[in-house]
Each structure stands twice: as structure tokens, then as C-alpha cells.
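quick one if you have a minute, typing this from the bus. theres a chain ive been looking at and ive put its sequence and its fold in C-alpha cell form underneath. please have a look and point out which stretches look like helix strand or loop to you. anything you notice is useful, everything is just below.

***
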Amino acid sequence: MKILQIAPLWERVPPPGYGGTEAVVSVLTDALVRAGHDVTLWASGDSLTLAELRSVYPRGLRTAKDVSDATPYEWVHAGAAIAGAKQFDIIHNHAMEPVMALAGLVNVPMLTTMHCLITSDTRVVWQRYSGYYNTISRAQFSTVPPLEKPQHAGVVRNAVDVASFPFSTQKDDYLLCLNRVAPEKGTHLAIEAARRAGRKLIIAGKVDPVDRDYYEAAVKPRVDGRDVVFLGEADQRTKRELYARAACVLMPICWDEPFGLVMVEAMACGTPVIAFARGAAPELIVDGETGFLVNDVDSMLEALGKIDTIEPDCCRQHVEANFDVPVMVEGYLRLYREIVGAPATLAETPPVAPVPAFYANEAKTAGAGAYKGAM
């Protein structure tokens, strides 16, 4: 099959540090090449891939110091990718709306993976998009507003290359918060939980310009270099080392996160995760077996008291069975074949990995405590 993969231009593929979408695109693209498919990847020019690489810009836009407005580059990126798409059997779009807006210009079926949520502004594109789309969790699909044209092809969850994550049964005593430092990620709540538990917390994550005020007001004053340590953005090697040695990862998410690759990466290292039961978290964590699903800081503290009951082997095996690359690749190949074959009706939710029973009975999350000002 001749497959065109279109990645966002914002980060390199694979990303040197932060970049969940680009990490997924990387393992998917290389696995498709290894499986014998003819794959072309549109991404930043510094990307590393087994596929044929095409690009309009030499590096990821986030690290390009001479770029003040990414939008024109994203337009050119989308236009160039679509202009050369006629030779392919299918277009797999990970760059979202800029590519979707051009889908009607080429007679090649397109599958868009919804890596983000639809907003009031991007909805105008979705209402006019006639292709297919997939969600990366059932929770994400529940957020999709009524749409007339695009057809939901199913759920394919993100994956990690499990073999590349070091497994360890020997843990240090520190807790880990590895994410963007942002109010919706609940960094301030991770600090609160660690301090109340009397545990050391290591924070590793980037601070985007839009989140600088939050960092300065809610995080930086609490960083003392001893009990609360801030490392900044972690590269791929550093984050794996942090995951493998952490007692557990804290994910006090304050929004309905559509996936949460950090949770899967941590469990791949044999490290349990304590997360607020929002978004896709109940689809990723098996409550009481690979971590704990909680509703607030008080219940997070209670779960910390039980963290030693989680077996590292159970965490690793759960990820291998449900979130390793072959699972995701087979899911996408199934969708490609169905779309190219143009069935009368695609399955609304094709078979996916089992969801923990907790998800079916999930109580509505109460008061996750979003950041509201200086603390």
C-alpha cells in the first residue's frame, strides 16, 4: 500500500523532547515501512525516518528562532503535501485542520487522526471535511460535537515502542510529574500532593509562552531544589531514566485529556501512575493494578499510601498487550483497508483493546481544582 503520512511541522519526528503526536507518527511510520508498505512522510527537514522524507522547512518550528508566526509555514506544509498526494492509496493526516481544509482538492481518501479536541474555531473546518477521522480514545469520541460530513472510522489508541523503555523493579523514593507545565496538567496539584505526603517531587516539562505566568505564579515559588525539583524539558534519554526510577508518576489532569502518552510510557517502565479519572485516563490505567484513578488531591494522597501494592511486571505487561506499536499498526491498517475499500458503512467503533471495568462505572470527577490565580 502506498501511504502518505503528514505530521505537524511544529516538532521534529521523532521529537527530541516533548511531542506526543510526533512520537506516535514516528513509530507508526517506521513500523509501516518495516511491514513492507511504501510510505512517504511530510515533516520537518530534520526528521529521522525509514520512510521517504519530504519537507518545506529544515527543522521543527518550535525551535526555529527565526520564525515568529508558524501559520504561513503550516499552510505551505499542508499545500505541498496535498499537491503531491495523487500517487498514494491513502493520506493519513496528523496535522489536523490545515490539511483537512485542502482534502477536497485531491481524489485520494484521507484519514485524519484527532490528536486534539475540536474547538469553537476549528469546528468550521470539521463541518466541511468530507473524509474519515479516528479518535485516539473512546473518551475523546464522546467530546465530538454532531458533524454532518466526516465519518468516524473508529478508535485507535496511541502506542509506544515498549522495547525502548527501560523496565525496572528497583524504584527510588521520588515522585515524578512529567508533562507540559500548564494549569490543565495540574502541576500545582502534583506539588500540593507531594508536599502533603512528605515526598520529594521531580518536575520535568517544558513551559510554553502561554503558560509562563502560570509557572511564575503557581510553580516556581514552590521549587526549592530539594523537596520540589524542576528540571525543565527532558530529552528522550532523561525522561526514560526518570520514569524507570520513579516510585510513581502523578497526573492530576484538570481537563479531559484525549489520551496521555506519559501514562503509557511510565507504565512501560514498570512505574505506576496515579491520575485524576478524567478524559482517557480510565482507558489507560487499570485501577488498583497498574496505578490508581482518583478524583482529587485527598484521594491522590490515599492512593500514594497504597502505591507499593502495584507490581511493576503488571504495568509492563499491560502496556505490551494494549499499547505496543504492533497493536496500533494493526488498528490503522484495518482502517486503511476499510477506507480504501470504501465499505458502505465503517464500524463506528471497531474492536479495540479491552477497557478496564472502572471506565464503565466511572463517577463524575468532582472539583479537580483548576488553577485560578497566584498561589
The two ends are 54 Å apart (CA to CA). Confidence is low (pLDDT under 50) at residues 344-375. The longest strand covers residues 2-6.
